[in-house]
Every structure is written in C-alpha cells, then in structure tokens.
Amino acid sequence: AQSVTQLGSHVSVSEGALVLLRCNYSSSVPPYLFWYVQYPNQGLQLLLKYTSAATLVKGINDFEAEFKKSETSFHLTKPSAHMSDAAEYFCAVTNAGGTSYGKLTFGQGTILTVHP
Amino acid sequence: DGGITQSPKYLFRKEGQNVTLSCEQNLNHDAMYWYRQDPGQGLRLIYYSQIVNDFQKGDIAEGYSVSREKKESFPLTVTSAQKNPTAFYLCASSKGSGTSTDTQYFGPGTRLTVL
C-alpha cells in the first residue's frame, strides 16, 4: 500500500519569501514521487517528478524538491515566492513496477497563499 | 495543439438522473484516467484504462461506469446509484509505456452539481 501526507492544508508566505510545502510518503517498494499544481477551477499541471535518478529534482518556475529516503519525505521548495504561485499543490506517489501500474495516490493538497 | 479536453465545464443534474462527462485527448496516449476531487481530500481514482476496450476500477468506482471504444475518448457516466456525485471531475492521460514514471496529463475538469 502507498500513501501520501501533506503537512499543512494552508501555507501563507510573503512575496519574496521562501516557499516550503511538506510531503511525506509511505510505500512498501521504491517510490516515484510527483508534485502537481492546480490553479482555481483548472486541471493539474506537473511541477516536477522523482524517478530514482538524482535526489534533488528541479522543476518549472524555480521549484525544486529533494527526495530523502531516510525521512520518507519529498518536500517542495522555492527560494522566492511570486504572487502567481498562489495555488493548490498536490504531492503524489506511485510505485516502481508491481501491481500499482498507472495508479497515482495523491495527498490532500496544500493551498499556498502569497501576500504582497 | 495537443491536449485533453473535457466537456462541459459545468454540469447540473437532478437527483436520479444519469449524466455522462466527456474526455477527449489528441496526445496519442494509451492510458486514460478519471479522478474525483473533493475539497480537502485530494484526488481519488474512479476508473482507469491502459488500452482500448479495457478498463479497471479504481478506489471509488461504485456508482460510476466508463467505456473505452476509441483510443482518444474515455467518457464517464455518473449514475443515479452514486449517492454523493457533486464534485470536480478530472480526466487524465499518459503514454502508457508500461512504467510507473509515466507523467499523467490532466484536462481542465468538469464541475458537476446535483440539484
């Protein structure tokens, strides 16, 4: 079984401040991990994904995430928040092979608010 | 432009009625998925299809049905058996390369409201 926990349903930062969105996963086999962003009333857009290559993954719009096996974490960061980053962010996990083909398990989501 | 289209964007249904949500992709992807999104619950998988004429139940398939007669189309029917159908429905597709690293690409979603 696999699961994802996103710590904090709402995160608020000031423009220019560091963004840190937390994601912890549970998986019985090596995981593949994804971060998606969703703007209001829209679909999801992939920010980045970890697929067992480099543990530090860079994505679009200066977002990055680090896979830490010992902590079972895949936190998303951005050095400097922009107003346009305000959205809901989802962490998701799938297993490398096995019977979970194509099945993404999503966290509950974190709404990011950016203040001027 | 390649992408995934969902229609309609907003849909209203009376209790007891079946309704079908459309999902079309021109990305030449083999795999397609339907998710349901409720506030604070993330996305939950309803059905998925890895190839034409084949599909599998996801975590919350009860009260829903699908078909996959064409590669580019994966319509979802919300039946009257679904007790709480008001939600945001998202369709996705992926190459279906047989690996778990496939990226799923999402459509813009359909918001269904039961009156």
User: How much helical structure, as a percent, in the residues of chain A?
Assistant: under 10%
What is the N-to-C order of secondary-structure elements of chain A (H for helix, E for strand)? EEEEEEEEEEE
Overall pLDDT level of chain B? 92
What order do the SSEs of chain B take from the amino end to the carboxyl end, as H and E? EEEEEEEEEEE
Number of helices of chain A: 0
Q: What proportion strand of chain A?
A: over 45%
Cα-based radius of gyration of chain B, to the nearest Å: 13 Å
Radius of gyration of chain A: 14 Å
Mean pLDDT across all amino acids of chain A: 91
- What profile does the largest beta sheet of chain A have? 6 strands, mixed
Q: Could you characterize the architecture of this molecule?
A:
The complex is a heterodimer of chains A (116) and B (115). Helices cover 0% and strands 57% of the residues of chain A. Chain A has 116 residues and is mainly beta. The N and C termini of chain B lie far apart (36 Å). Chain B has strands spanning 4-7, 10-13, 19-25, 31-37, 43-51, 54-57, 64-66, 76-78, 87-94, 105-106, 110-114. In chain B, strands 2, 4, 5, 6, 9, 10 and 11 form a 7-stranded mixed beta sheet that branches. A 4-stranded antiparallel beta sheet of chain B has the order 1-3-8-7, with no helix packed on it. With 115 residues, chain B is an all-beta fold. At the A-B interface, strand 4, strand 5 and strand 9 of A face strand 5, strand 9 and strand 10 of B.
Task: List key phrases describing it.
heterodimer; A: 116 residues; mainly beta; six-stranded mixed beta sheet; five-stranded antiparallel beta sheet; 11 strands; 0% helix; globular; B: 115 residues; seven-stranded mixed beta sheet; four-stranded antiparallel beta sheet; 49% strand
